[in-house]
Amino acid sequence: MKRTYIVALLLGAVVSLLALFVQLPYYVTMPGTAQVLEPLVHVEHGDKDQGKLMLTTVRMGRANIAAYVLAHVRPYYELYPMQAIKQAGETDEEYTLRQLQLMEESKEAAIVVAYQHAHKPVTYQPRGVYVMGVVKGMPADRVLQVGDRIVQIDGKQVSTAEQLIGYVRQKKKGDQVTITWKRDGKEETATLTVAPFPQAPKQVGLGLSPMTDYDVETDPPVQIDSEKIGGPSAGLMFSLEIYNQLVEEDITKGHKIAGTGTINMNGEVGPIGGISQKVVAAAEAGADVFFAPNEKGAKDSNYREAVKTAKKIGTTMKIVPVDTFDEALHYLDTLHE
């Protein structure tokens, strides 16, 4: 009996270790946190307010056997195949770098929008194009890497992603273009042949995802410490926090305001992933209001999903649809202290 007990104990230990350390070809996501933004955003001599603006996050990691099982039994735990999260051939390091670059783009847009609406001096100039991803099997594959900064194409300076895309679109299958880029401080050059995309043969290109890098200058200065938060989904909330520090009034009226959504230089709010999990995180943090991308009233919008989730979890938190920064400000203006 004692030997049987020891064998069973050892088998149980092995199974437990396998459940914890064997990784499956999936990612698991779950509700993250609602993080107060004031400690992360520092406008020089910025206004201090009673209310709180909070960004919301989703926790994500490679699924082991235990997480795989939990995702089938726990609410708001979701499984995604690896190809739904990472681009084809993308390494973990490249994925992380891409997410951090998306955050940088989001912060730049948030700063510009907030300062413009607060009527404070702000200028922004494009200073190059980052490579956000490469398509496996396309000309850029194995030549360019995520994080490379493209500075020239065919000897002409390129400052924005739109310039790069517009130039390549004029080319035909088999045309050659010479790309110059910087990596780790060193300049490199290569000639690539324009080719059809595997998923869209009628379209040709180089197979790279570009992002414009802006040099933003403000008065007063602002610093955003986004730590290791990746992705663009905090853009709206960053812009609201920056604006709140720039103006004298407390736009929160003393309330806890959470939310999510991308933002661009025009102040337009875009959809994000994991909206239900972010609603759960905001509700658990005691938020009074949650801003959700409206997607211009689409039937499957972030806002509609957020409303359904709020009803399921029984929160009294107000779900507010927004398509622009202005709409978020207008709603906050209607709040009472």
TrEMBL record:
Residues 99-183 form the PDZ domain. This is endopeptidase La. It catalyses: Hydrolysis of proteins in presence of ATP. Belongs to the peptidase S16 family. The keyword Transcription does not apply. Keywords: Hydrolase, Protease, Serine protease. Its EC number is 3.4.21.53. The active site is at 233, 278. Signal peptide: none annotated. Pfam families: Lon_C, PDZ_2. GO terms for molecular function: ATP binding; ATP-dependent peptidase activity; serine-type endopeptidase activity. It comes from the Bacteria. Residues 225-335 form the Lon proteolytic domain. The keyword Phosphoprotein does not apply. It comes from Anoxybacteroides voinovskiense. GO terms for biological process: protein catabolic process; proteolysis.
